[in-house]
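User: I'll paste a sequence; please echo it back and then give the predicted structure.

Assistant: Echoing your sequence first, then the prediction.
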Amino acid sequence: MGELAASASADEELVSIGLGSCIGLTLIDRARPVAALAHVMLPDSAAAADGAPGKYADRAVPALIEAAEELGARRLRLEAVIVGGAQMFTLGNGSALDVGARNTAAVRGALAAARIPLRAERTGGSRGRTVRVHVGDARVTVKEAGGTDVPLFGGQVPAARRTTRAGAR
């Protein structure tokens, strides 16, 4: 939890397992391909003096952008996918401690502030999930606890939308 990873290796797969109320936040540049993934635990870092950059929504988005750009992604091509944000805890008096909804809202807000489009999501509910990012074909799959991997987003950008070494379209 709180980890962040990025890759430009076509044969790699980034995985975040056991997403309950946490968010698996993925940024993808499909034209490159480059992918970055963070396991976001909490909505904001205001009360935290420390913590990995992937741990908080407000720190994870800029950290993922930076990690992706360092591997050759272009910010204007980045697209986001989020998974998780389940309501995992109910207090004894019947009220819910819905950290998942707060995490989801915080990640959406941070993406909007960074002007990164959210292309797909599988959030909410009460089941844990696993997200897999297949770097080579820029594909994202999700698996609910007890289920099987299902496609959520992906595939390469059509050739007409890809950039060339000579410049961007």
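Confidence is low (pLDDT under 50) at residues 157-169. The radius of gyration is 16 Å.
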